[in-house]
Structure formats: C-alpha cells, structure tokens
Amino acid sequence: MEAQSRRSEGAGKFPGEGLNVNMQTSSRTALTTALTALLAALCLGAASGSAPLKPLNLEKTHGPVRVVLLRAGQVISTNNQPEFVVTYVVEIPSEGAFSDLHFSSSNEIELKANRKVIAWSGGFSSSAMGFNNLPRQNELSKPKEFPGKAMLALDIVYSGLKIDAKAVDLKLQFTWRKNQQVFEFKNVPLK
What we know:
The protein is an alpha+beta fold and 191 residues long. It has two helices and ten strands, in the order H-H-E-E-E-E-E-E-E-E-E-E.
C-alpha cells in the first residue's frame, strides 16, 4: 500500500519520474522565456536604429594623397533624431603634414542621392582628429598606416538629415599645399 501511494504522488510509473518530467517542463519554459527575451531585444534594437553602420574602407589615391572612406550612412542620435554621418581619413606625407592641409565647411562634402545633389541647410558639424579619437571608432576598421605618412580622421554629421536611398555619391574636397584635392566615391552603399 505504501508503494502504491508513492507511485501515485508522481506522474510516472517509477519513483522520481514525475520530478524528471517537471524538470524537463521547467527547462523548456526557461528556454522559451530566454529565446523570447532574445528575440524581443533583437527586434527592439533594430527598431531603434542603433545598429552600427557597415565599415566601408573604400580607398582613392591621387599622387601622395590618399583618402579612405570609412563610413557613410544613417544613424539615430541620442535624442532619437536622424543623422547622416560621413567618416574618412586623409593620409599625406609626414613632412609639413597638416600645416598645408585646409578644409572648407562650405564645400568639404557634396552628397548625391539618385543622381541629385542633396542641398542641406540644417545642422552640420565637422570634426578632425586622430583615428583613435573618432566617435564609435570601434565600429571601424583602421586603415593601414604607411611609413613617412600622417593620417587625419574627419567625422561629419548632418543633424536631422534622412536620406531615402540605397546608395549615395560623395565628393570630398580640400586643399593640400595650395592644390585643390577632389576625391569622388560613386554608388556608396547605405545600410
């Protein structure tokens, strides 16, 4: 009689089998909960637009001057506003390096989408720094540095600009040793 009462307490035919079934059910529930939480986190992350941009590392060289386009694309600012970011590196000979390099905010970058120039009169900021000081630089691939060369990284942010296109054309312009430098990157893929 005692043995029968023990068997009737569990769900299985053998002692402890009911506990095993309960553990399996508990494990399935925990796994389902974890997967649901992971899926929700992925969906929320995608919806917030906070995913990093794809690193580009598109490179152009004119004589001793090299430009590497590191990033171009749409991001969401900390105040949940759209921004368009362009990040690139200018590499020039170390001798007299940056004293001969000049940028003009009025024509530093020309953006085109669907073959039309994007005229932007909204917020705009441009910062020049070393690669290791770039915002979100951990999302980028640092270009190879060559002996006898110096690199300057530039990060341009168009506040409030949202570009609805799959690709853009970029024209980067600056003066080096009193010579106008123009680097064009065509059909740059956006995220």
